[in-house]
Amino acid sequence: MRWLASSRPLRRSVARPRSIATYSTQRGNPLRILFCGSDEFSCHSLKALHKKHKDDPSLIESIDVLVRPSKPTGRGLKQVTEVPIASVARELGLPLSTLPHDTFTNWFMKKYINLIIAVSFGRFVPPRLLNQAEYGGLNVHPSLLPDLRGPAPLHYALLNRYTHTGVSIQTLSPHSFDTGTVLSQTPLPGIPIPPNSTLTSLTSLLAPLGASMLVSSLSSGFHLPPHKDVSWQPPYPIRHAPKVRTVARQIPWLTPSISTLSTNLPSSAPHLEDIAHQHHILGPLWSKLVVRTPKKEQNKRVVCDDISYILDLTSPDLPPAVANEVASALERCKEDPWAEEQVPVLEWLQIGDDEQQVPEWYPPQPESLEMFERVVALERGDISSVDAAAGVEGVQQQPKRKKEWRLSIQTAYFPDSETGSIYLRDPIRGGKGLLRIGKMTVDGKPTRPAANVAAQLGRTVTDYRGMHFDEEPIGKALQPATRRPEEDAEVDEETKRRSNRAMVRRIYSY
After folding, report:
1. More confident position, 271 or 188
2. Which of 222, 97, 216, 202 lies closest to 152, judged by CA?
3. How many Å separate Cα 260 from the centre of its chain?
4. How many other C-beta atoms are found inside a 10 Å radius of the C-beta of residue 124?
5. What is the pTM of this model?
6. For the ranges 272-281, 331-340, 347-356, 413-422, which has the lowest average pLDDT?
7. What SS3 class is residue 116?
8. Start-to-end Cα distance in the chain
9. Residues β-bridged to residue 307
10. Which end of the chain is more exposed for a tag (fewer CB within 10 A), N or C?
11. CB 386: neighbour CB atoms within 10 A?
């Protein structure tokens, strides 16, 4: 009964010093829990706590549920989706409240609550609430803390190709996320991650385990002070699992993948395979396509779906017609790297923010390097906008702008008329693999086969130097594109004409 529960604060042992063991059992006073959750992972913990509440009321006396407000989703943000745990709380008949304005400001907890449990909640529980609760707070975190601290441990465990993972039960720190005392943890080396796991499958694997560990920790009295830290210390610098933002779903044509960026570790997989793996974990990826017409240039946002990696030309997943076409192009490039061919290409635009460095190994064309240096000088205020075109130093200071870089790269594509897919080679690193893209969505319009989009937005170029499919390191693979062939003893007019042709790779800085 709610009215009976509300009278509990009068009987609580608030005045008892926490350091004195005055409890009747090692489990302490019956728990009156405020459960903060949101997704499917937290639903398992709530169901397990409710079952324990029914089986053992002396341990868990009551459970109140707090959720974050529903947010608009979908195209145009027209659909309002409720968090999954709200419906679970109603099914279980538990008191349910919503955090107003998605913040704890001016929100007050019921006085009879003596333990806060937050599982995949996404909001920091303030110290005023933790101090009000007799036993503070607990959290179920799907990682082997302190490794992969942050709101997206499952994402980064998969993106980084972890072989093992686990679950940790920790206290809620009043200072920052995921820095509390680890009370219980999956024994090392952890739980093996099955091959080809997805977020859904890994959640289904760890959520029941986390729920069981939470109930077991409460039954064992781990929430009672003093708390004992049982966490391990990784032999490498602690890695973090920050929120997966929109920029993380951008296709990294020229820069390391999100997994490499998050851990500062080199990826052993081919670059195109990293992109396919990124799609496997995060879903549809986006990029920008540069569409050129005689009158103007447009940048269209393209969402790519149905992405996979083809190991080599002998793969059974590669249509024979496409394999023959790629092999033929490879032979032509080997015979004459300067051959003039009409090649269908897509020009992609990768955007980086001020927190991402321009790849140091990216070799701009000689004619673009001068322009790049001028733009950088213009940003620093070294030259004026009027003198920039002439390359004359000036004194006019330019207004500061948000640092952003853009790299443009063209990739030859090979369409498959039967499936509507397109196949791309790695434009920088070469190698044997191919990236298959099955579907594309341009500027929010209906999804179409990638081959149809490429035929409409792609174009053909002559003397496409990026057609080099060398399997050598980047320096050698790009040598014909950055300087004349070594066998050319003289710099004749034809060589100059070819070397000064429209840039295949261009670099911008805005």
Report:
1. 188
2. 202
3. 11
4. 15
5. 0.77
6. 331-340
7. strand
8. 63
9. 437
10. N
11. 10
Helix, strand, or coil here: 124?
coil
What residue type is 349 in one-letter code?
L
- Rounded-to-integer distance, Cα 102 and Cα 464, Å: 52
- Report the candidate in 342, 310, 337, 340 with the shortest Cα–Cα distance to residue 323: 310
- Work out the average pLDDT over 102-127: 94
3 state DSSP class of 271: helix
Listed by start position, the domains of the chain span 2-13+23-219, 246-509
Q: Which residues pair with 346 in a beta bridge?
A: 411
pLDDT of residue 393: 39
Tell me the one-letter amino acid at 325. Answer: E
Distance CA 69, CA 118 (A): 16
How many CA within 13 A on the CB side of residue 78? 2
Decide: helix, strand or coil at residue 163. coil
Which phi and psi angles does 205 have, rounded to 5°? -80, -40
Element (H, E) at 498: helix 493-499
Long-range contacts of 73-80 (CB under 8 A, 24+ apart): 75/444
Q: pLDDT tens digits, residue range 272-283? A: 888 999 999 999
Identify the CATH class of 2-13+23-219.
Answer: alpha beta
Which region, left, alpha or beta, applies to residue 118 given φ > 0 means left and ψ of -120 to 50 means alpha? beta
348: amino acid identity, one letter: W
Contact yes or no for 371/406 (Cβ under 8 A)? no
Residue 371 has pLDDT above 90, yes or no: no
Which helix H or strand E contains 53, and what residues bound it?
Answer: helix 40-55
Q: Which residues of 359-370 are buried (b: 16+ CB within 10 A; e: fewer)?
A: beebbbbeebee
